[in-house]
Amino acid sequence: MANSLLTNSIITKKCLAQLKNKLSFTKNVNKEYSSEFAQKGAKVGNTINIRKPDRYEVTSGAALVIQDSVNRSIPLVLDQHKHVGMAFSEVDRTLSLDKFTELFIDPAVSAIANAVDAACLAAAYKKIYNCVGVPSATVYPSTLKGFTQAKAKIAMGGGNIDALTALVNPDVEASLVEGLKGLFQSSEQIKKQYEDGIMGYAAGSKFMMSQNMPMHTIGNTVGTPLTNYPSAYVAGSTTLATDGWTNDTTGVLKAGDVITIAGVYAVNPQTRQSTGALAQFVVQADVNSGASTGPANITLDRGMYASGKMQNVDALPADGAAIKTFGEVTSLKLIQHPQSLVFHKSAFALGCADFELPDAGVKASRAVDPESGLSLSMCSQCDIVNYRTIHRLDFLFGFETVYADMAARVVGQPA
Fold first, then answer.
1. Cα(155)–Cα(164) distance, rounded to whole angstroms?
2. 234 CB-contact burial (10 Å; exposed 0-12 / middle 13-18 / buried 19+)
3. Most exposed among 43, 327, 361, 413, judged by the fewest C-beta atoms under 10 Å?
């Protein structure tokens, strides 16, 4: 009996199923916005705006105080296009689906899944300002202290702490497993936690390992950095004026560094009362210092408000306030360290779309998983020069940090 040929449709559906399983970080983020891209023939650059809830202040007394509504939204852009090109013969299509998956689908889909996770994680961590632990190139978290502190950071900022995920890199996973022997218990009921890199449940989080967790290298934080405001800081500005860095130094701060400003404390977003902890801000672009007094303008993830319904600090930066990076002035400069990410799925959004399929001279198919919001396409064409068939798998997506307050970074073992 002749073997049945594996069609493009069968192959594409199998690829999508494998992709769904192999994604690590992006498997656990919000993908509900994919349905808003549900249009035939989506293209790179398509955008939707994610509306964020407004914030209001409570007024005492009988007199009505009407507050204007502010339309806050974040664009989610389909600007990421990943693909894998491969060649297999018509004879290969006669293989069993399991064997074909082993030889072709698994390697191709693993490459796409890792590329997607790596791209999203690289973008995600540089938006997260909540940070705990002491960065180190050699001392990794070996207890749950940092992860419970990360959960507390999210809670103090008003974030959702239900069903958190903790994503760690392989070195941190090894350190945790060694330090917490016996904590992650296997049973028939929770065996799923051991599949696809999941370590277990602890400290209110589902632990997972990903080799795509990016390392971070701290800037060359030399000098005695201070805020520079002979005139007052303008509320809401995302640019922080500083001086006191060592003159003409490249990379005094790197994108992703977390800084604090003396005298500027975080507040609870509902009560507007100080949390007792200095507000943390994440640097959005590499910073170089200038000549003479070592001036440098720092681009922050968000502006500061000391009053009103957008209040997020108890006081605006004063002139000459000390600036620390990861809680230190210079002792952590240039350290490259692993980091972990604790987050609620609503912190991030992944949008996928049905790629526009060509219809001239190619065989094209598409597979869509409504549950996960993922969409994958496959195109095949004869290579008459080399007498073979070439194929490509394509994945179109966009990624954005929507609620940074629902995530926190564990950059090392807390002191």
1. 11
2. exposed
3. 361
Q: What is the pLDDT of residue 1?
A: 35
Of 273, 314, 277, 282, residue with least CA distance to 300: 282
Beta strands in 177-228 (DSSP E): 198-202, 205-209, 216-217, 223-227
pTM (two decimals) = 0.87
Q: 380-401: per-residue pLDDT in tens? A: 888 888 777 888 899 989 999 9
pLDDT reported for residue 196: 43
What does the block give as tokens for 141? 């978290």
Please tell me the distance from the alpha carbon of residue 117 to that of residue 110, in angstroms, as a whole number: 11
What is the Cα–Cα distance from 187 to 72, expressed in whole angstroms? 45
The answer to whether the beta carbons of residues 316 and 331 sit under 8 Å apart is no
Q: What is the pLDDT of residue 400?
A: 93
Q: How far is CA 379 from CA 12, 50, 62, in A?
A: 9, 32, 66
Distance set, CA 33 to CA 48, 54, 347 (Å): 8, 19, 13
Written as six digits, the tokens of 258 are 């977390």
Angle between helices 8-22 and 106-124 in degrees, nearest 10: 40
354 contacts 346 by C-beta, under 8 angstroms = no
Q: Is 288:262 a contact under the CB 8 Å cutoff?
A: no
